[in-house]
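Hi all, posting the design record for the shared folder.

TITLE: backbone redesign
STEP: 1 of 1
STRUCTURE INPUT:
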């Protein structure tokens, strides 16, 4: 399973082009299925796609009737997203913002989708970022995303954030964890480099 480029030689523009046709993330689809089971009217729901990248998850949300704020620190990602979903952008269903983790301000939302972006937050800023995410999610709203574990091949990188399983679960003490999966295996990055992945995938509903 390919996710991202070799972190030491990453070109985000090349990455977005490489993965533009990938399917939506499993965590996103799982979260959407939980919303659907609750028979909640998606055209009244608002999602924030943090680290939206090439926009595949954003597109899935839009096509399912959601209003979406798509955020990425890379301006090229926002430009590609606006061009790809021009009709939604012009209608106001899609809002975009180019902003880094440390400057991120989040409004109240029904759903935050974080895909694979959170591990790329510098450890110095992670707690503040997570506090903002937690505060922004409404009661009965959801989070979906992925965290890198301590056995991940990149775990020695001091500019990325890694968590043991216990810490990941503690972060969701005010949530019902509806889906939790640990991936601990060899694989490849999006540009074909071999890599050992250690990833915790989470979908959780805020209950308090």
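Okay, here is what came back for every position:
SEQUENCE:
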């Amino acid at each position: 399973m390919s996710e991202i480029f070799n972190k030491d030689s990453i070109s985000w523009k090349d990455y977005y082009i490489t993965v533009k046709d990938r399917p939506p993330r499993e965590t996103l689809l799982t979260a959407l299925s939980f919303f659907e089971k609750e028979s909640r009217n998606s055209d009244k729901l608002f999602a924030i796609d943090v680290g939206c990248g090439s926009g595949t998850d954003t597109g899935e949300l839009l096509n399912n009737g959601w209003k979406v704020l798509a955020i990425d620190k890379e301006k090229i990602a926002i430009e590609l997203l606006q061009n790809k979903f021009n009709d939604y952008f012009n209608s106001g269903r899609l809002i975009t913002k180019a902003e880094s983790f440390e400057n991120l301000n989040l409004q109240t939302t029904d759903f935050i989708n974080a895909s694979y972006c959170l591990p790329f937050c510098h450890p110095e800023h992670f707690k503040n970022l997570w506090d903002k995410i937690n505060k922004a999610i409404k009661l009965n709203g959801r989070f979906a995303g992925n965290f890198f574990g301590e056995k991940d091949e990149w775990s020695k990188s001091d500019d990325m954030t890694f968590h043991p399983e216990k810490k990941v679960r503690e972060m969701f003490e005010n949530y019902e964890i509806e889906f939790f999966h640990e991936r601990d295996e060899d694989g490849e990055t999006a540009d074909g480099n071999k890599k050992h992945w250690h990833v915790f995938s989470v979908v959780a509903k805020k209950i308090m």
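COMMENT: The two ends are 35 Å apart (CA to CA).
Let me know if anyone wants the other runs.
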